[in-house]
Structure formats: C-alpha cells, structure tokens
Write a structure and sequence with these properties.
Length: 98
Amino acid sequence: MSEPHSGEPEGLPCVLSEEVTELLMDKNLSGAVFGAIVAATVVINETRGEVPGSTASAKWPQQRRMPLGADGSLGIAEYVIAADADPPHIVLTRVQLY
C-alpha cells in the first residue's frame, strides 16, 4: 500500500533538449559528465527548478544556470522553468563543459 500524500508539491518533469540528448548519447562522453547531467535532472525535478546554488537571469528569471560536478568542476547546465506551460515542466536546454 502506498504512503498517503505528504502535502508537499511534486517535482516538475525535467526534459532534455535535442542538444543535451545528443551529448548524452555521445559514446566519448565521460561517465563523470553523464552522471552529473543525470544527477542535475533529478535535483532540478525534485526542487521544481529552485536548485540551491543556481542563478537566474535578470532578464528572464525562468532561465537558470547551475554548476555541474563538485563546485562546477565539470561545467554548467542551463535550464528553463516552463511553469505556465500545460503541463508545467522544465527543459534542460544546454550543457557547457570545461
């Protein structure tokens, strides 16, 4: 039997742009980068895009950036919170690797 709903809001689905999907399918992509991107999608989903340490664009507050890897050692992930879409979701739009 499942637990009763705790009243906390559910996460928002985090979908990948074509660019990020292609990056994840690259056979030369390191396991560390692959894992960091997957972990980022989980955190983005669970926090509904309000990831601790992420920064919002002053011009477009729905656009965010977050570090990848320990202290951003692998790069930056960019995402957009589409809270007003039907259904609401988040798109991981781009990954910049160092």
